[in-house]
Amino acid sequence: MKKIIPILLIVFVLPAAVCAYAQDSREAAKIRYLIASVETLEGAKFIRNGSEYDARAAANHLRLKLKNAGKRVRTAEDFIKFCGSKSSMTGEPYLIRFTDGTAMKTEVFFRKKLAAFAKDGP
User: Fold this and answer.
1) How far apart (Å, rounded) are the C-alpha atoms in residues 94 and 74?
2) How confident is the model at residue 118 (pLDDT cuts 50, 70, 90)?
3) Are the C-beta atoms of 48 and 106 separated by less than 8 Å?
4) Structure confidence by residue, pLDDT tens digits, 36-51
5) Measured between alpha carbons, how far is 31 from 76 in angstroms, rounded to an integer?
6) DSSP at 92
7) N or C: which end of the chain has fewer CB within 10 A?
8) What are phi and psi of 57, to 5 degrees?
9) Tally of CB atoms within 10 A around 11
10) Can you name the residues that pair with 93 across neighbouring β-strands?
11) Residue 96: enclosing H or E segment and its boundaries?
């Protein structure tokens, strides 16, 4: 009986732990993809609290917010909600102004990118 318990733990607990880790790594990949989708926007401006930032500064800001969010962000949806949609200081939505002059809320931008990731991968 004593030998069966460790075997049962290996058979049932280890696969569950591996699945949980795989999901976390998949979500982390989605978050990296979302940040990269902003960072690689040539000529676009990231508008935060009324000020404009280039794509690299926007990506760095999002990484900092992600780091500060800690365990609150477990999924790409959490990232969009807690880091990528609005200022935590003022509550103002973040915007992206594209080179053609059109602007979009980052929440909408990220949700479109997340849907594309789910459909086609990065």
Assistant:
1) 21
2) confident
3) no
4) 999 999 999 999 999 9
5) 5
6) P
7) N
8) -65, -40
9) 9
10) 86
11) strand 95-97
Q: Is the pLDDT of residue 26 over 70?
A: yes
pTM equals: 0.79
Q: Measured between alpha carbons, how far is residue 120 from residues 27, 50, 56, 114, 116 in Å?
A: 15, 34, 25, 10, 6
- The identity of residue 85, as a single letter, is S
d(C-alpha 109, C-alpha 93), whole Å = 12
**How far is the C-alpha of 16 from the C-alpha of 93, rounded, in Å?**
38
Q: How many angstroms separate the CA atoms of 109 and 25, rounded? A: 22
Q: Any idea which residue has 């949700």 for tokens?
A: 111
Q: 7 or 33: which carries more pLDDT confidence?
A: 33
What single-letter amino acid sits at 84?
Answer: G
Contacts of 107 (CB under 8 A, 6+ apart): 80, 84, 85, 86, 93, 94
Q: How many Cβ atoms from other residues are within 10 Å of residue 91's Cβ?
A: 8
